[in-house]
Amino acid sequence: MPALENAERLSRVIQRIRSLPTLPSVYVKVQEAMRTPEASAAQIAQLIESDQALASKVLRLVNSSYFGLPRKITSLRQAVVLLGFNAVRNALLALSVVHVFGKGSKEDFDRAEFWKHALGTAATARFLASKLHQGSEEEAYAAGILHDIGKIVLDQYLHSQFMACLEFSRMEGLSLFEAERRLLGITHCDVGEYLGEQWGLPPKLIEGIALHHRPRILRSEPKLVAIVCVADTLVRQMAIGHSGNFGPTDFVPQALEELGIGEEEALSLIPILRATFDAQEEMFQLFE
Ligand SMILES: [Fe+2]
Ligand SMILES: [Fe+2]
How many Å lie between the centroid of ligand 2 and the Cα of residue 4? Predict the structure, then answer.
């Protein structure tokens, strides 16, 4: 589809979305503070503590087995010092995004299943980044959480059209991406990219959102895009959660190639990933 036509369709859809959801102000403030060179762990901790509910969730998350820290962390300042700015910011991003979009009120698109898919993809992406020594683990985690966020926007603001896409995907066995492209003319990737820009997310993450179904369109972050793409496929093969995609669960060859692994090697990771997920049940519960 020509880029211009795509852009026109997107703007028509976006116009119907009067006010896009915003991220909690704490996250925005933390993001801004971290951009300044003089940001300190104490300052970041203080900002997060201004939202007590979020602060206690961040502490529980960093103390979960997911982070595998040898001792219990009792203060946010300690968390920032030990894990670093990026890890804390991404934990906050994950919690904020799930908080903003929550469970939703519509029953025909199960948000709990959706978040399981997103968190599963995030954890898998982080695992792949570490195992294959490709890029930042924290960026992989954040990109995994956010990769399908456009679906939530479509569900919330263009509900009946989005439901038609799910049904089309289910009936025809097409990927949801393809069903959206055919029925709406735009996809959850386009909408997610737009939302990411509105939120001022780092360009790398926006690319992970925008291109995870088209890793062959390579821009500046081919590794991150490939990691999200492979993680998404693995999570779908393991049937962890469900994001409304009824299409095939085949690997995208270009994504594997980009990471320098074959299909067999990717499949061999499944038992390890399963064991990790079992150990991380408590982390999933934090997002419920
Ligand atoms: Fe997707
Ligand atoms: Fe996905």
Answer: 26
Rounded to the nearest whole angstrom, what is the distance from the C-alpha of residue 232 to the centroid of ligand 2? 5
Distance 238 CA to ligand 2 centre (A): 13
pTM of the model: 0.87
Question: For ligand 2, a single-atom ion, which residues have Cβ within 5 Å?
Answer: 148, 232, 243
CATH superfamily of 3-286: Hypothetical protein af1432 (1.10.3210.10)
> What residue segments make up the domains of the chain, in order of their start?
3-286
User: Is 276's pLDDT higher than 70?
Assistant: yes
- For residue 114, the ligand closest to its alpha carbon is 2
Reported confidence tier of residue 174, pLDDT bands at 50, 70, 90: very high
pLDDT band at 90 (very low <50, low <70, confident <90, very high): confident
Orientation of helix 25-35 relative to helix 85-101, angle to 10°:
160
Q: Measured at the alpha carbon of residue 258, what is the angle toward residues 253 and 261, in degrees to the nearest 5? A: 70
- Helices (H) and strands (E) counted in the chain, each on its own, are 18, 0
